[in-house]
Write a structure and sequence with these properties.
By secondary structure, the protein is an alpha+beta fold. The protein has 3 domains: 3-121; 141-233, SH3 type barrels; 237-321, 2-Layer Sandwich (Alpha-Beta Plaits), CATH 3.30.70.240. It has 12 helices and 12 strands. The strands form 3 sheets. The protein has a 5-stranded antiparallel β-sheet, sandwiched between helices. Strands 10-11-9-12 form a 4-stranded antiparallel β-sheet, covered by helices on one side. Helix 4 (74-84) runs antiparallel to helix 6 and helix 11 crosses helix 12 (304-321). GO terms for molecular function: DNA-binding transcription factor activity. It comes from Tessaracoccus aquimaris. Keywords: Transcription, Transcription regulation. Residues 2-60 form the HTH deoR-type domain.
Length: 324
Amino acid sequence: MRADRLLRLLTLLQRHRRATSAWLAERLDVSVRTVLRDMEALSSAGVPVYTEQGRGGGCVLLDSFTTEASGLTTGEAQALFAWAGREAAADLGLGAELTGALAKIAATAPKVAVSSAEAMADQVLADRRSWYGAREEVPALPALRRALADGRRVRIGYRSAEASESRLRTLDPIGLVDNAGRWYLVAEHRGRPRTYRVSRVTAVEQLRDPARPRSVGPVQEVWDRLRANLETATAPTPIVVTVDPAEAGRMRRLLSMQLATGAAIEERADPDGRLRWSLPIRQADVICAMAVMAAPALTLIEPAHLRAEVVDAAARALEHYGSG
């Protein structure tokens, strides 16, 4: 359900107070059924609208609905309505609240500001997923948000990447982080700050005990420290490869997926006509597997210990799968 359409519906009702669902559907370029569903959404968000059946019926906005946002600038409206297009509020269980807040603003905001913001919704899209990544389901997120708001400890069921079953952990929540479309809970476990991927949380129980994390300050500071420690522990590995020029495009695409953040591939030509590339990569084992699969188009030259691992991996694969 698009927030900009709900706002257009409310704007029409704010100007006319009463209109038939067919008239609204024509102006919103949707079906009558969609208009009725949108009316239900506005009502659930606390906006005083209702529908009347029969002759003379239609969609009604009560006269008691008044707000004041006449000083809202075009840029301010665009910023607010752009946030409405994000999935974050819905993930947090605040979708209806966001719709209600924006509806109240749109009701008396200048017409030019609202129109500009609505147009922006058709021009800007925030897709938080990485390429080839499915949208993560985070049913535990609203409960975690409520525990944070209440300042309570939580007991969660958590299935780590290495485990096949969930284990219970009692945590002192610090905050929630939306990182490239993946939600993380930042919390202390036995006094140590850690991150927990919300899609792996299988259960949440809010405890009566108040949360008392030792880490003080905004979640941004704790997250930055945790992220810096992780990135330092997994420092990029510099490698040198040679590439068949005929396969350069395909090899560049494959290697770019493992390229360290902010880095670039340095290229020069070898006397034998192949291309020599130098680059820092994030996961050495992935490059070893790639070197086996992509040979001879891709040849790993340095470092020597990774080249030895490629030879060992190729020998193990041959022994395992055999020549047949």
